[in-house]
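Hi support team,

I'm opening this ticket because the web form for multi-chain structure prediction keeps timing out on my end. I have pasted the exact lines I submitted so you can reproduce it. The total is 250 residues across two entries, so I didn't expect it to be a heavy job. Is there a limit I'm missing, or should I split the entries? Thanks in advance, R.K.
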Amino acid sequence: MYVTSTLFTRINCIHRTNISSFLFKFVFTLKYIKKIRIMEQVNKNTVSEPKKDSNPIIQMIEDKKRIVKAIKNGESLSTLKGIKIVSPV
Amino acid sequence: MSLLYSFDVTEDGSYSFISEQNHHYLIYFSESTLPDSDGNIHIVYNLGFSRDGDHSSTPFSFKYDRIIRATIMSIVNDFFNKNDHRVLIYFCFGDEGYSRQRKIVFNQWCGDLDLSVEKHDNVIPYENTFVYGSLMIVRDNPLKQLILTSFNKFLEDIYNK
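Hello R.K., no limit was hit. The queue was backed up. Here is the completed structure from your submission:
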């Protein structure tokens, strides 16, 4: 009777441990998936600034190319990251 | 004094006017920096303008409108009146094979530049083509030599690549 009872308690204990371990892993995986989705969304919404050239003349040419493209696409020049449009007149 | 189109400053800081033949012109200045060998950083403005959202010089079958040139060059002259210590650069791209023509037209327009401004032309190799550039600076700018030396040094770096 004692042996049966002990055995039953042990099996029950192992079973509970497995369930809690499973639940822990499940919740952790869900959180991980959620985190990846948020990161993907952030990457979609952020247009990274093109790498700056060390030669300022080349950089100026590349900036102007981006401006030309933006105007052609009907985009506002204020959306161009890293390019400062000024009104000096 | 010649007639000019009246222009507005747009939300993004560019200047806009509509010609008599209903073409929309946009003039913009973007700010860049040019370091020199003495450790100074000079502010350089990159000038550009477009017609109806396009920078192309492909055949344009409308009547010549001299007020467009007068308006754009008046903005350039006004720029130097208000920023006599600054530098202005204009680039003509060769994407559609008309950069040279555009450069010739711009040179003609520069006949209207204020006499106090001098222009330095150069041809810059870029991505298997050539970009025609004009650097404009006030003759009496005390930093002129430093700026030109620095610009030419960076230009040399491009040629020697």
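A quick check on our side: Strands of chain A lie at 84-86. Let us know if the file doesn't open in your viewer.
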